[in-house]
Amino acid sequence: GVTLADGKRMLPAELLPDANNPFAATVVLHQGVYHQIKRMFGVYDAGVTALHRVAIGGVALDERLAPGASRPLTQSELALLQKAVLE
Predict the structure, then answer these.
(1) Which DSSP category does 16 fall into?
(2) CB-based contact 62:45 (threshold 8 Å)
(3) Fewer Cβ atoms within 10 Å of its own Cβ: the N or the C terminal residue of the chain?
(4) Vertex 17, ends 40 and 24: CA angle to 5°?
(5) Residue 87: is its pLDDT beyond 80?
(6) How far is residue 43's CA from residue 9's CA, in Å, rounded to a whole number?
(7) CB-CB contact of 40 with 13 (8 Å)
């Protein structure tokens, strides 16, 4: 885990470099705090120019939704999120 500039210690995250783009990567977080990815990369003086969330707690985000749009969760999605909270 990374210790942020304010002293807060983050849980370890997974960094998966993009084989086709040396300036891109997938980051898998196991906690979420305000602007966490930007703050974690900032510790190493690395900027973040774009972020795209693909899942929350095991629930893949619906790519058909427009930015800012929402839809009700299915029962199975709700169960996945509840399981993630309990773990």
Answers:
(1) E
(2) no
(3) C
(4) 75
(5) no
(6) 12
(7) yes
